[in-house]
Amino acid sequence: MRNIVNSLMILFFGAFVFLSCETNDLIDDIARPGHFAASVYWEVPSTTVSAGDEVEFEAQFWDREDDIELLSVWYGIERELRYTFTCMSGNESVHTFAYDSSGVARERQKIKEYDFSSDLYSEEDMAYIFKNSFPTSHTLRSDRIAESETTELTQEDVENIVPGYIIDSFYETVFPEFDYDMLYMLLVIDNEIVDEEEFNSYFEEVAVGLPDPDTGEQEYEMDMKESSEEILFDYFSQVSFPNMIFDSRDQIYRFNRTSIYYLDAQFSVINGNGVENFSRSATIELL
Q1: Where in the sequence is the domain holding 74, given as residue range(s)?
Q2: Tens place of pLDDT for every residue, the chain, 287 residues?
Q3: What domain count does the chain have?
Q4: What pTM was estimated for this model as a whole?
Q5: In this structure, what CATH number is given to the domain that contains residue 92?
Q6: 48-49 and 39-43 strand pairing
Q7: For residues 287 and 138, what is the distance between their CA atoms, to the nearest angstrom?
Q8: Residue 51 near residue 139, CB atoms below 8 Å
Q9: Is residue 222 a part of any domain in this protein?
Q10: 264: in domain
């Protein structure tokens, strides 16, 4: 009896597996072959190109099935932005402020397509050899402003080329570096933003150290009242940006700016199976 039961169970299990395989053949799913992509290599001889010029390149590619449908070049755009400002008090440097940023200015996209021809095949290299170029935009030209050349700078110039949040950060960073004498010269004398009596009301005399043992004289310094910091910073922010960075000795503005665009470029090959493969990336600086 036990043998009959075991035989029935084996038959039932076998039928179950058979029906399951007919519905969803796991082995067939695993073993089903996929399509190979073409092998792609390219070289961009120059890593720097003037914005608006064509970028020359050479590509090599080959495919198992020797069937190519489409060639193309893709690139994304990255931007590197640097600012350096030196705050001045007369002809003395107070503080150098620096801001660096880099990021994606435009996601990668197809720039140009090229027709494929079997005539590109090289018996010597055992690959297709393709030489061509792709365009760049003159609007992506790198821009550099050096303080040694900055003899004229208006507030409007600054607002056109420096984001507001960077200007705000500059004032906030520099303000703590100013002591009583420097603020007095800046706000009362040079820019006449506040009169002397009001300015002094924001400070208090604080004794420094012990009195001189011989003369009994006590040294004092002017300390900003805690309640006055916000008011004085508001006055401080009213000083024009060019006035903050003007070097009266050398008669230049301590202003530096660099804006550089880079292309992150790749060459693409789509074979007859519709499988696309990309070359390694090439980084190209636009001048």
Answers
A1: 34-153+252-287
A2: 444 444 444 444 444 444 444 434 433 333 335 578 999 999 999 999 999 999 999 999 999 877 899 999 999 999 999 999 999 998 899 999 999 999 999 999 999 999 999 999 999 999 999 999 999 999 999 999 999 999 999 999 999 999 999 999 999 999 999 999 999 999 999 999 999 999 999 999 999 888 888 888 889 999 999 999 999 999 999 999 999 999 999 999 999 999 999 999 999 999 999 999 999 999 999 99
A3: 1
A4: 0.74
A5: 2.60.40.10
A6: unpaired
A7: 9
A8: yes
A9: no
A10: yes
DSSP states of the chain as a string? -HHHHHHHHHHHHHHHHHHHHHH--HHHHHH----PPPEEEEE-S-SEE-TTS-EEEEEEEE-TT--EEEEEEEEEEEEEEEEEEEEEETTEEEEEEEEEEEEEEEEEEEEEEE---GGGEETTTTEEEEEEEE---GGG--EEE-GGG-----HHHHHHHS-HHHHHHHHHHHGGG--HHHHIIIIIIIS--S-HHHHHTTEEEEEESPPPTTT---EEEEEE-GGGHHHHHHHHHTS-HHHHTEETTTTEE-EEEEEEEEEEEEEEEEETTS-EEE---EEEEE-
10's CB contacts (< 8 A; 6+ apart) are none
Q: How far apart are CA 68 and CA 274, in angstroms?
A: 9
Whole-number Å distance between alpha carbons of 58 and 282: 12
227, part of any domain: no
Exposed, middle or buried, 101 (CB in 10 Å: 0-12/13-18/19+)?
Answer: exposed
Cβ(236)–Cβ(171) below 8 Å:
yes
Residues with Cβ within 8 Å of 4's Cβ and at least 6 positions away in sequence, in order, are none
Q: Is residue 283 part of a domain?
A: yes
